Hints:
Structural class: alpha/beta
Number of domains: 2
CATH superfamily of the largest domain: ATPase, nucleotide binding domain
Radius of gyration: 19 Å
Distance between the termini: 18 Å
Strand order of the largest sheet: 6-9-8-7-10-11
Helix content: 25-40%
Number of strands: 11
Order of helices and strands: EEEHEHEEHEEEHHEHEH
Strand content: 15-25%
Shape: globular
CATH class of the largest domain: Alpha Beta
Amino acid sequence: MLLVMDVGNTNIVLGLYDKKELIIHFRISTKRDWTSDEYGLLIRNLLSFNNIDFKRIKDAIISCVVPPVLPAIEDIINRYFHITPLIVGPGIKTGISILYDDPRDVGADRIVNAAAGYEEYGGPLIIVDFGTAVTFDVISKKGEYLGGIIFPGIIISSEALFKYTARLPRVEMTRPETVIGRSTVGSIKSGIIFGYAEMVDGIVNRIKREIKGNPYVLATGGLVPLIASESSVIKKVDPFLTLKGLKIIFDRNKSD
C-alpha cells in the first residue's frame, strides 16, 4: 500500500492507496509544535482503529507547505513504517511544466493539484482550492502551469472579523437562508458564503478573459462544499484531488 500525505497550514490530509484504489483517508489538525512521536501515535491509532496492517504500507509520498512540520512527518515515516518517503519538490517528475517566474515559489500542494487535474480533466483548466487560503491555479491546454491567484481563506477572514470587531460573534459556517441577513449571525454568513462565491465567479471570469479560452473549472479543498453550490462557474468538485495527485506523482517517480 501507498501512504499519501498532504501537510497544509491548517490540516494534514492523509490516505492509503491499495494499488489504484483510495481505501481510506483522514484529516487531522496541523500542530507545528508536535513531536514526531505525537504525530506518530495519532496516525498509528487511526490506522489501528480501522484495522490497517502497518506492514502492508510499503511506500509513502509527502507534499508539505509547512517546513517546520516536515522533519517530524519524515521521522514518523522512517521510524514507524521503516520507509523513506518521496518528498514533492525540485527534481521530482510531476508531468507539469511550471512557467512561474521562480518555480520554487509554487507550493507543493498546488503542483500536486495541477498534476491530478490535468491528468483527469485535461486543459485548459482552473483549479480552485478552498483551504487556509483560496488559491486559483491555471493550467494550459499543453499542461503548462501558467500561474494563479492567492486569496485569504474563509476561516482566516471570518476569524479576522471576530478578532477585530467588538460586537461581531464567531459563527458556524453554514449556508444562510437568505442573502439579506435578518440577524448579525445571518448577515455574517451571507457576507462570507455569498461573498466568496461571487469572488470565485468574478476571478474565474477575469482569468477566462486573460487567457482567451474556456477552461474547465475544478474545485477542491476542505471548505469546498460551502461555496461550490453557490458558484455559477465551478463545474466539478473533487475533494480528493490532492491525494490523487500524490499517487500520480509517486507513480511517475517510483521507477527512479
